[in-house]
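Reopening this ticket.

The earlier resolution said the output was attached, but the attachment link was broken on my side. Pasting everything inline this time so it's all in one place.
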Amino acid sequence: MTRRSTLRRLSLLAASAAVITGGALLPGTALAATGAPPSAVAVQANGLRTETGQWQVTTDKPSGVSVQLPGKPETVQFTRATDGVDGRAYFAQTDYGVLALTVYDGAAGADDLRPMLDSYLKDASQKASTNVTTTASEESTVEGLPALDAQLAGEDGNVGYVRFIAAGQFMIQLETVGPQDKLDAMTEAYMQFLGSMQLQSGDGGLTADGGGASPF
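Inline output:
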């Protein structure tokens, strides 16, 4: 498979992961059809806490990428045999939306970020049967790696954020999707989610995502 076709497949899977992780919120999706489990998370006045469990570390072992998610996440596996590329999605559903980490195996650089976002919006719109657009986007770096943040808006009233990070041999995707009336709680949780991310360093240790948490 050529680099161009691999990146196209990554883009398609990015949209697929968005639909999967946002299934409880976006109409016409697999999780919407089967019924999502109730949330175990609440936002308290004194900060973010869970009702039945604390935020816990989830690590994608092949890449070493680590984040904190509220409770034990659900996992979706992508394989080269069935999807054209290997990857993993980890997501937690909450009262205010969905938080998700997705990691795709494959070389990725700064030039791939905008095409990823464009394909993500196009394919998410098709799969969710509602027009999904970005209201703002910004390029930056996270731990020295090229990154692209975007604010999301759907015609169905859902909103969210997505961050793509081109991490050399991996494309990292962090996102949240939720209803407009839960935006403040969702944004607070997303900031905690971004700030918790750690990347594998060259010497095998973990280096914290220090200064690049804010999406805008």
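Reporter confirms the inline version is readable. Residues 1-9, 19-53, 202-206 have pLDDT under 50 and may be disordered. The chain is about 25% helix and 45% strand.
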